[in-house]
C-alpha cells in the first residue's frame, strides 16, 4: 500500500540522474514536446511525398493523352533529331519513340523498324496541327522570305527574285551612305553636269555606281537605264534573266546637305534578248544600240515590278509586283527589310496638296484656279493643307499614306514638266494604281504614255482618285 509518505519520498528521490555529458539524448524520452515535433516532421514528409507522387501521376496521364492524340492524328510531319536529344527523353517517351510513334521516313533515308535510322539520327512522327497558329508578336517576315514566298506561289520567277534582292541590297548601301554623308565628305557638288543639265552631287554619282554594280552582279539584268547615264547600258555578265531595270539612284539629291528625306526609284520590265550591245561614253548609237533604246522605251503598263526606297528617320522599302503594294522597314538590329504594311491602300480623298507654289506665276490660269479653290475654306470652313518637301519619294510616300494629291505641272519654264517619265512617273503611277489611286499627266493615264526617249519629261498629278479626277476637270 502506497502512503503519502512514500509518494513524497519518490518525488523527493526520483529516478537516478544521468550524466548529460555521457548521454546527450538522456532527456528526449522524457520530453513530450520533442516527441510531438518529431511526429509532425514525419507526417509533413509523408504528405510532401504523397503530393509529389500525385503530380507525377497527373503528368504521366497528360503525356499519355498527348501521345495518343499524336498517334491518331490524320496528318503528321517527320521530325528528325539527334541521338543526344533522344537520350534526354524520359523512359516512357523513349519507349513510345522506339515503337508506336515511329512512322515511315522519307524515301532517301534507309529506314527500318528499329530505332536507329542512320548514324546518330532518329525519326519521330509529330502531329501537324490542321489549323495554323496565329503569328506571335515577335514573329517577323523579311523581304527575302516574302520574295521566296511569292516565287513559290508562282507570282514571280526566280530570276526576278534575284533582281529585286539585288535592288534591296543597293538600297541598304545607299541608306548607309546617306546617313554618313556629312562625315564621309559626300555632301556638295561633284563638279559635273548630267544629261538633264543638272549639277551632280557627290552622292548622286556614288549612288549610281552602287545601284549599277548591284544589278550587274545579280547576273539577271540585261539592260539598265539611269537618270545619271546618257544612254541605256547593256550588261555583259548575264546568265539567264536579261531584265530591263530603270532607276533614279537618288531622288531629291538637292536635299542631301540639309539631311531631308531622299529616295531611290526603280522599275523592272520584261527581258529582251535582242539587246546585248555595250555602250561606251561619247559613242554614237548604231543599229544595235538603237534596239536597246527601243527596248527600254516601254509604256508603264508593261512594268513587272516597281518600287522606291525612302531614306528618312526610317528606311522604308515600298514594292509592288502587280499584286498590291507592300511596305518594308529596315531593321538596324538585323540589317533586313521587315514587312510592316500589307496591301497598302491610298484613301479615296484627302485634304493635302503637294505643289511647288514657288512656280505659281508660271502656271496656266486653269491650274491657278484649281490651287486657289483648294485654299478657299468654302462651306466646310476647312481649306486644304499644303505640304511640299521637294523630294518626289518623300512627298509621294506621305500622299500614299494620308491621301491627297501630288503634282509637278508644266509651266512656262518647263513646257513638259520636270519629272522623267521612264524612271520616275511610270513606276510611281504603277505603285499608286496598285494601291487604289491614280496617276495622270492632266488628261491621260501616265501608264499609257509611250516614251520616245530615255529621259523624256511629262507633267505628273498623282494621288487619291477623287483628287486627281477633280484636277482633270479643272484642266479640261
UniProtKB/TrEMBL annotation:
Keyword Transit peptide: yes
Residues of the Fructose-1-6-bisphosphatase class I N-terminal domain: 142-342
Coiled-coil residue spans: none
Pfam families: FBPase, FBPase_C
Span list, region Disordered: 1-28
Domain Fructose-1-6-bisphosphatase class 1 C-terminal: 346-475
Basic residues biased stretches: 1-21
Domain of life: Eukaryota
The protein's annotated pathway: Carbohydrate biosynthesis; Calvin cycle
This protein's GO CC annotations: chloroplast; cytoplasm; cytosol
Annotated catalysed reactions: beta-D-fructose 1,6-bisphosphate + H2O = beta-D-fructose 6-phosphate + phosphate
PANTHER family reported in the protein's UniProt record: FRUCTOSE-1,6-BISPHOSPHATASE-RELATED, FRUCTOSE-BISPHOSPHATASE
Name of the protein this chain belongs to: fructose-bisphosphatase
